[in-house]
Design brief:
The chain has 15 helices and 19 strands. The chain is α+β, with helices and mostly antiparallel strands. The model is unreliable at about 90-110 and about 515-540 (pLDDT under 50). It is a single-pass membrane protein.
Length: about 550
């Protein structure tokens, strides 16, 4: 009496004798040890187990029995082959195994099945090709002729599609090709399949990589061409700028040394060298970048080492020159000095403030009045940094004017000398105060933040009529707001009337009344009252109404 064991192979339950089970168990262990080392061992092990399950099922059905014995297991192992058959390195052993495999292959024959790996519609033609040993393309051509000639090819194809089973498992595909479904052929088929997958994947990756690389190459080239155009236009702009400044230095076009030019802070003799240094410091890096882009895009040859070294040394020299000129100019603004001068004014009830254009030459008794500057470029020595302020003093004090001349230099003495060399004139006649529209520097004097601050100290109650030419020079005065209070067309308003009050200079006209006519600005109410109102503080707002007077401050 033999002991029976129940086993499960590929989800199929079998009853097997104990001794036969031990042989089968050892056989499966050898297979798993051999194929377990590969990355995709699970698939081939499943195929082998599936084939063994099919063979056991065939033997049970053929022998009309329920228990597998030793003979059944040995027959399956003999047909499947052992691992040692293809692991041996002995050539004779390998040859004998090949002969055995070929013999088995001859005995097995071929099965008519549809090939799922080589199909156009269902794999019928490729299955017929495997069965008859011809290429699938000729079978497809034959079916196409049948379709064209009488249309019978379609009917035959549909019938074969229904009748022919699909080769799903690896064993089915082997039998479709007439190969024995043993371990050796399983492994060979699996290796060929994996090799084909890897090759296809590698080719696909190569094609994908090539496509991506070509796309990226096109994108990079488009971006590169764009930058080449930008850098090229920059180089052209630099050359045009150099020509422009060179012509300006030669007095062919307006001078770059005027108030709006970039070189008016420098000594005129240093301007050409600074211009060249600045040009080279910017041009050489852009030229190098331009050539580098051309090299990358169009495979140009690199510059010679001699030329590269020379350009680099020239660039370093230009950078050094820029640093030298920049520090030289910066030192000239190190110290500052201010000279204050006060002069009395004739006391008048009304002052007319106007401006004099010193560039206009006037004749007095047939004699021309000039500025005494021989230079052709007068604007180089005229500056318009003038500020005018008006402050109140007690009505009993005498009016006066304060001049503040300021300048900078590399030392306090130099700054003081520059401030003392500022020439500015304020003339007073019987009715007017006439301010020059610019102050004059000595010929050859460079701009070093020279400016003039003029402060008029006028008694409370003094009336001023200010011309609009002084609007840009007035400080702490809302000239436009006062002019807006005139009812006439503003373009015709040239003179605006102000009043010196205890709050400072205020517009002499009251603001335009609102619809309710209830509120009046506190400052203008004070002016209308001729400085008789009591002022609490500057930020106080006084509202005069029919029922009384209210006083508002910032706090309440």
């Amino acid at each position: 009496m033999n002991k029976t064991i129940i086993i499960n192979i590929n989800s199929i339950v079998f009853h097997i004798e104990e001794d036969a089970y031990e042989v089968l168990r050892s056989y499966m262990i050898d297979i798993k040890k051999h194929f377990g080392q590969s990355e995709d061992s699970r698939e081939i092990l499943e195929d082998i187990e599936n084939r063994i399950a099919e063979m056991f099922t065939e033997k049970i059905q053929a022998g009309s029995k329920e228990v597998l014995n030793m003979d059944d297991v040995n027959a399956v192992i003999e047909q499947m082959g052992s691992v040692s058959d293809f692991e041996s390195e002995d050539q004779d052993g390998y040859s004998s195994f090949q002969q055995q495999s070929n013999a088995d292959e001859f005995k097995v024959g071929k099965k008519l099945m549809r090939d799922p790996d080589d199909k156009v519609f269902s794999g019928v033609c490729s299955g017929l090709g495997h069965f008859f040993g011809i290429e699938a393309k000729w079978v497809r051509l034959l079916f196409a002729l049948f379709v064209v000639i009488g249309g019978s090819g379609v009917l035959v194809y549909v019938i074969l599609w229904i009748v022919m089973p699909l080769a799903i498992t690896r064993a089915d595909k082997m039998e479709m090709r007439g190969e024995a479904p043993n371990i050796h052929n399983f492994k060979r088929s699996f290796d060929e399949e994996m090799s084909g997958v890897r090759d296809s994947f590698s080719r696909g990756m190569d094609r994908t990589g090539d496509s991506v690389a070509k796309l990226l190459q096109i994108i990079v080239k488009v971006i590169g061409v764009f930058f080449v155009i930008i850098v090229g236009l920059t180089l052209i702009g630099l050359i045009i700028g150099l020509i422009f400044f060179a012509l300006a230095i030669l007095n062919v076009i307006p001078d770059v040394m005027d108030n709006s030019g970039p070189f008016y802070l420098m000594d005129p003799s240093d301007v050409p060298f600074a211009l060249i240094a600045g040009f080279l410091a910017i041009f050489i890096p852009f030229a190098g970048l331009f050539y580098l882009l051309l090299r990358v895009l169009f495979d140009k040859k690199p510059m010679s080492n001699y030329l590269t070294t020379t350009l680099f040394l020239v660039w370093l020299a230009s950078i050094g020159a820029i640093i030298y000129y920049s520090t030289s100019v910066a030192k000239e603004f190190k110290e500052s000095s201010t000279i204050v001068e006060e002069k009395p004014l004739q006391k008048q009830a009304v002052y007319y403030l106007n401006e004099n254009d010193i560039r206009v030459i006037r004749l007095k008794n047939g004699v021309k009045s000039g500025l005494g500057i021989k230079s052709e470029n007068l604007s180089t020595y005229l500056r318009r940094n003038i500020r005018i302020r008006i402050e109140r003093i007690d009505s009993l004090q005498e009016p006066y004017v304060r001049y503040e001349y300021s300048a900078k230099g590399n030392s306090y003495k130099v700054a003081t000398d520059r401030a003392s060399n500022i020439h500015y004139t304020l003339r007073q006649d019987s009715t007017s105060l006439v301010f020059d529209n610019a102050f004059q520097l000595n010929e050859g004097e460079l701009y070093r933040d020279q400016e003039v601050n003029i402060t008029l100290f006028l008694p409370v109650g003094t009336k001023l009529i200010i011309n609009d030419k002084l609007e840009d020079k007035l400080r702490d005065i809302s000239f436009y707001e006062c002019r807006d209070r005139y009812s006439e067309d503003l373009s015709d308003v040239k003179d605006v009337e102000f009043m010196v009050t205890s709050l400072g200079l205020k517009c002499a006209l009251s603001p335009k009344k609102s619809n309710d006519n209830d509120e009046v600005d506190a400052e203008d109410s004070e002016v209308a009252a001729n400085d008789t109102s009591i002022v609490i503080r500057r930020d106080t707002i006084i509202k005069v109404k029919k029922d009384g007077v209210t006083v508002e401050t910032k706090k309440k």
